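Check these lines:
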Amino acid sequence: MKKTVVRFGLIAGGMLSLLMVLTMGTAKLMGSELSGGIGMAIGYTTMVASFIFVHFGIRSYRDTVTGGHVRFWPAFRVGLLISLIASICYSLTWQVVYPVMLPDYAEKYAEQAVKQAEAKGASAAELEETRQQMADFVIQYKNPLYNFAMTLLEPSPIGLLVSLISAGVLSRRKRAQLSTLGSAAS
């Protein structure tokens, strides 16, 4: 299991990292920033594409390690571990990339959050609260551990979802277990 998890986790993580760098680099070369809805759509689309290797990893585990049969929970565990490795690769890449390509990311994010609150018609007190929260965020984001943890949370829900779906689709019981269950139900 370990070999399969590491191999497919690193493949998915490599793809996640490569697509992040390519996307950000392309935007930087074009003189634009991928912010708001477009940036999120591109980012999450590349994450879904990268997490397809979770499915391939579970299938490889089922076919090569467990002899063609795997139950849901072991398959799900394999998917989660692959997703975790891929997410760690993504977060590590962000730690290297953002200071170079987006050194003012936290400040721009905070500014955008305040603008969104203003656009929604927030009261003066609510705006001040948002400004304070965002000022705190900017300070916290400079802490590499906080930054790493926050970045780790971005791809994790997609990895969880792909792991669930793939484990459900790929899990199989042995025929002997199915026939035993079928005869007991009769």
